[in-house]
Amino acid sequence: MTTEAPVALLTGAARRIGAVTAKTLHAYGYRVIIHYRGSKEAAESLCDELNALRPDSAVALQADLSQLKDIRRLADMALKRWGRIDALINNASSFYPTPLGEASEDQWNDLMSSNLKAPFFLAQALADALKETEGAIITLADIQADRPLKNHPIYCAAKAGNVMLTKSLARELAPEVRVNGIAPGAILWPEQEAELDDSGKASILDRVPLNRPGDPRDIADTILFLLTRAPYITGQIIAVDGGRSVS
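Given the sequence above, the corresponding structure tokens read:
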């Protein structure tokens, strides 16, 4: 490990797609900053695993992405850790139903914060550092940004804003920084209050031409491609959804 090794900040990276992406980038030679909100044990366990493979190559940082002071603190701590930032991966995302007539302001704030507010203010705070390294930003969007999901109006609106933010930042930060988004399809089934029953899962897979769910590695590999092998791609949203968006 040298001071020249690239550094990636990944939000919401303690578990699921974020954790798989952290491992994928780490295996490629990145030093990784694993952000978490409440999953401290999982984040620290992942860091220990990665540091055992390569000393001083991973760190976990806590922040509540609904709080602007925490967003700015996260950016500051991430930059100070190794003195550079080469990639910002906006993976953190709240997801749950908010039926019209039942949704609350707290739900609005939570969904907008993780999906839209945090990606913007992290980009703003890290813009100069990313320009110095000619780095990249990748944001996890959603195919539902274009095709609204019933009972999820706030989430879908937040992801639609996320898509436009990605395109806007690509113009704002060019030519030094590339900004792209990835719109996953059925990669991992949602948890807790957003969990689907077997019929709901089957209904989704019926609309996937490849007729199977994806794998977190499909997202992680696409992120790695955009970071390392796509120097002329910016302002794009790539659907990794088994063809669901065209069915």
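The mean pLDDT is 92. Try to locate this feature in the token string yourself.
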